Amino acid sequence: MQYTWKIGGEAGFGIMTTGLLFAKIASRSGYHTYDFVEYPSLIRGGHNAYDVTFGDEQVTTIKPTIDILICLNKETFDLHKNKMSKEGLVIFDPDQFTPEGESIAIAVHFQKILKEMNGQVIMKNIVALGASLALCGADLSELVAILGQQFGKKGESIIALNRAFAEKGFEEIQTSYKQYIRPLLQKRESDKQIVLTGNEAFAYGAVGADCRFYAAYPMTPSSGVLTALAGWSAKTGMVVRHSEDEIAVINSALGASFAGVRSAVGTSGGGFALMVEAVSMSGITELPLVVFISQRPGPATGMPTWTEQGDLLFSVHAGHGEFEKIVLAPGDHQEMIEMTPYAFDLADTYQLPVIVLSDMLLSESHATVSYPEVKKFMEGYTPRRGKLITKADATYKRYALSDDGISPRLVPGQEGVYYQANSYEHLEDGHTTESDVVRVQQVEKRAKKWQTYLRNDFLTPKIYGDIKKVQTILVGWGSTKGVALETLKQAKAQGKDSAYIHFSSLYPLHVQKITELFSGILEKCILVENNATSQFGKLLRMETGVNIEKKIVRFDGRPLVVDQLLKTI
Amino acid sequence: MATVQDFTGYKPTWCPGCGNWGIGMGIKMALAELSYSPSSTMVSFGIGCSGNMNDFLNAYAMHGLHGRAIATAIGMKLANHQMPVLAVVGDGDCYGEGGNHFLHACRGNHDVKVIIHDNNVYGLTTGQVSPMAEKGQKSKSTPQGIIETPLDPLALAITQGASFVAQTFAGDTKHMVETIKKALQHSGFSVVNVLQPCVTFNKKNTYQYYMKHVYKLDASHDASDKMKALQVAFGIQEERFALGVLYETNREAYHTLAVQNKDVSLLNQAPFSGVVSLAEEFI
Q1: pLDDT by residue, tens only, chain B of 283 residues
Q2: Quick check: B267 and A416 CB within 8 A?
Q3: What is the DSSP letter of A122?
Q4: Nearest-CA distance A304 → chain B (Å)
Q5: CB of B278 less than 8 A from some CB of A
């Protein structure tokens, strides 16, 4: 079973921290979680809300109906009352308002408690957590343990204070609402789990990949990567640089890549627009670079704190001239952890830019991932740096023609040798040329890298369900994986089998593999995309001729939900 | 030991008499005299007549994008701070297209030696005005004369935090070599503005013009005096161009604070081994 707990209140009063605390407590109690934050593009005022869906099986998307709603103000109730599940619980402060309607009203005297205990407004959250844990049949031990880790020995008084407020909320439920306590978060055995966002998953994957240079200019919803990597830099030794603008970001990353270290940049659509000229340079200079893009609704400033898959075709086509790049889109948090080192491997192996596409939903939602699996993955990972060499003789040619299109790339500094990485078209040794013959040779050499990649590294789409037998096949990419998989599960529960084809290697596409995959099943396919113009459908048609006519799109800034997809099955 | 010849690449395609020839020679001589070799030096070239030096100067080099050479150089330096990093750029390149990078590189005091070929025009695109052009200068893009006044790069660099600010003249090889050598020996962001006649597109700022309008700073100039340095820099407004080191100060270069182990380049540091335990903070 899955349940959704939601807390809402005025922005700037600790909603985010509280939501994450609830998710971590659920995870430590042995449950899987997926969360989603709603917040406006401002720091104070406005409405913040945090959903956590939790359950005893993997949770891949938010369950939109709310089982427990914490209203830190009346607005929260007004905005979300229509999403309450049958017998959903509404926690409110009777000194503020009284909820009308069919939901079960649970009065918790937030303001009175604050007054009596002389607490700051922010402590309401802790009271709410205490009450929530009581209603879910949990105790306060995990909360106290997490606070203990956060504040350490020096923070004993802070921990004691928090505990006192949590106990107040807990007691109010125990005293007055015992009949509504259900064992939703009773401790159960499970793998140890981590709870992290897609941004943190990328950052973590980058550390695991031995990325040594990360540059960025803050931009929602990608900034979490910069924050995480900067926070770790004293430990990891990574140079994490917040540059003056996105143009500096990407050009400095290419300079670092030239000098031989794994480099990455991160941004959202608008920042990437500024980087595009240098993406093209990465193409012709054949310098490896990983570009993380967390999409948000555009155009221009758009809706900064909401989600969309609107920059796929922009990413695919980014850069003037014709050159090779690879576009990947991890579907969930675990894929993000594992695909990020893979992106660095591809960048090094094929000496080109690799774009890792995320979106606000994946970037800012936390989800539980099995810690033993992450551990196993990282312990088994060794960077694959392709034809990077540290020794060469005077005959060395940086852009030597080769069968697979890849030329040995010498780390600068080798005595007796030198070469240039040239953004002009160049001879094999790197010098500028306008020769028609050499131009053709170099264009063809670079193009071969794609063929080599498609042969050796293209990830064929993952298939969930039996595409030959079912009547409906959803087709998606990136973060739509979560909602698609939950749809399959719920359809099955209703006795209807369906399948899902998930793309994570988006560009270039392997024409033969893709056309074979869709042969004979096209009529049953429905594209699922979080954008207005079904961009992946266009890409698929353009690159492979596969034309999926049925589509479900959503472009109001919100993620797709199961109900929208379930209707089609 | 490397010689000027070792640094010499392809035959330059610059116009006969162009100031670039002198600057190219000045850079090579300075590098050779300080015992650098093409294998021990990294250079980031911008785009323009100046950037075309990429094929004429041997080094580990990137010929990058117009305006972005400083940004690229910063990445090179941070990744391998044990090699000297030069940025060879033009005035349009560095002060126009790349102005933001110039400004912030001054603030950051990145250990990059920027050699600016300052000829007041965009030579490679046939002579449009650069941000250094004198007010009223006519060109293909400003047939009625440029409305803006010229940038004051030396004053800008001094006020924004560059720790080495100098000017030299493409017609005085000896002075140029000495100045570039001083820049190479300085740790921190080093600006060397080189006054450079463009014999094809700039009929005003000729060798003769500069002979008349330059003067050398003598021993009485105190390069540690920021206000005095600014006064000297402002001379540009009266067409008086000081040659020499206007300003020099000791300030920690960016990489000394950003790269964890100063003795080992980022490139050669041991990989981080704590990735598994790093995940524990997410539990």
Answers
A1: 899 999 999 999 999 999 999 999 999 999 999 999 999 999 999 999 999 999 999 999 999 999 999 999 999 999 999 999 999 999 999 999 999 999 999 999 999 999 999 999 999 999 999 999 999 999 999 999 999 999 999 999 999 999 999 999 999 999 999 999 999 999 999 999 999 999 999 999 999 999 999 999 999 999 999 999 999 999 999 999 999 999 999 999 999 999 998 899 999 999 999 999 999 999 9
A2: no
A3: G
A4: 25
A5: yes
Specify whether the CB–CB gap between B266 and A212 falls below 8 A: yes
Q: Do strands A32-38 and A47-55 pair parallel, antiparallel, or not at all (unpaired)?
A: antiparallel
A69: CB partners within 8 A, 6+ apart: A6, A7, A8, A76, A77, A80, A81, A84, A88, A89, A90, A91, A103
Contact B145, B134 (CB under 8 A): no
Peptide bond into A299 cis (omega under 30): yes
Contact B44, B76 (CB under 8 A): yes
Could you give the C-alpha distances from B40 to A296, B43, B82, in angstroms and in order? 44, 10, 9
Residue A313's region, left for phi above 0, alpha for psi from -120 to 50, else beta, is: alpha
Q: Is there a contact between B283 and A27 if contact means CB atoms under 8 Å apart?
A: yes
Min Cα–Cα distance to chain B from A378, Å:
7
Cα distance between residue A74 and residue A133, in whole Å? 22
Question: What is the residue whose two structure tokens read 């793998």?
Answer: A191
The answer to whether B272 contacts A207, with C-beta atoms less than 8 Å apart, is: yes
Chain B residues with CB inside 8 Å of A392's CB?
none
Does A283 contact chain B (CB < 8 Å)? no
Q: CA-to-CA distance for B105 and A560, rounded, in angstroms?
A: 44
Query: What would the DSSP string read from start to end of A448-496?
Result: HHHHHHHHHT--PPEEES-TTT-SEEEEEETTHHHHHHHHHHHHHHTT-
Question: pLDDT for A37-92, tens place per residue?
Answer: 988 777 777 889 999 999 999 999 999 999 999 999 999 999 999 999 999 999 99
Which chain A residue shows the shortest CA-CA distance from B101? A248
Measure in Å the smallest separation between the Cα of B10 and chain A Cα atoms.
9
What is this structure's pTM?
Answer: 0.97
Q: Which residues of B touch A248 (CB under 8 A)?
A: 68, 71, 74, 100-101, 104
Q: Which two tokens stand for residue A122?
A: 């922010």
Contact call for residues A245 and A218 (beta carbons, < 8 A): no
In this structure, chain B runs to a length of 283
* Residue among A347, A291, A292 at smallest CA distance from A324: A347
Cβ of B78 and A281 within 8 Å? Answer: no
Indicate the SS3 state at residue B217: coil
Sort B147 into a burial class: Cβ within 10 Å, 0-12 / 13-18 / 19+. Answer: exposed
Across the interface, whether the CB atoms of A413 and B60 are under 8 A apart is answered yes
Distances (CA, A) of B57 to A181, A435, B9, B26: 77, 21, 5, 11
Chain A residues in contact with B83 by the CB 8 A cut-off are: 259, 412-413
Can you tell me the distance from the alpha carbon of A478 to that of A566, in angstroms, rounded to the nearest whole number? 19
